[in-house]
Amino acid sequence: xxxxxxxxxxxxxxxxxxxxxxxxxxxxxxxxxxxxxxxxxxxxxxxxxxxxxxxxxxxxxxxxxxxxxxxxxxxxxxxxxxxxxxxxxxxxxxxxxxxxxxxxxxxxxxxxxxxxxxxxxxxxxxxxxxxxxxxxxxxxxxxxxxxxxxxxxx
Length: 154
Fold this sequence. Notes:
With 154 residues, this protein is of the alpha+beta class. Helix content is 35%, strand content 24%. The protein contains five helices and five strands, in the order ααββαααβββ. Strands 2-1-5-4-3 form a five-stranded antiparallel beta sheet. Strand 3 and strand 4 form a beta hairpin. Helix 1 packs antiparallel against helix 2. It is globular.
């Protein structure tokens, strides 16, 4: 099982490393939200061009990918079109755990904390990514999905 990004030395996932990476991913989330308040075009542009080692996707309440950044191609080897419309759990290890976690996170009272998840890459190998979720809400404040920024451990 390969959980270390190719070409990177193995190192333990420390609390400090997790906190640092989660903060970086949260800053990209903030930038996406700020761009979205400016215009749809600004959001789309930033969504399509994540920083190196980072990507973003959106999941609907039916737990399928609705939108996937091109950054997933570099991280996982899948083109966005290969993911859109498919259940997110089909691409991760421990599918049942993922299904339950997504269902829980769609609740309005859910606390969305940074976490790691091991994904199955297009070539069959595995990679563990740090993930930071935020709710996507409609104009009335109802949760209509989850936006997740993912990244390799830096």
